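#onboarding

Welcome to the new folks! Below is a worked example of what a typical request in this channel looks like: someone posts a single protein sequence, and someone else replies with the predicted structure as tokens. Don't worry about understanding the tokens yet, we'll cover that in week two.

Example request:
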Amino acid sequence: QVYGTDLKNRIDEKSPLSPETQYARTKKDAEISILKLISNKNLRGTILRLGNVVGQKIESNLTSLQKLTFV
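Example response:
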């Protein structure tokens, strides 16, 4: 979501960020904060932008969370 929704080409970690929702903007802001902290404190770190897994018989994140809630 941090890349926006107008995705005509493939995206990678060098693609410009263009968040369109408040949720996506907070993810971008969190990444910037982490990168600043890593830089200022001379730390090492990695930011992962994991996509949702889709396909046959794949449960959504919401379904997984619901199962955890009702255990």
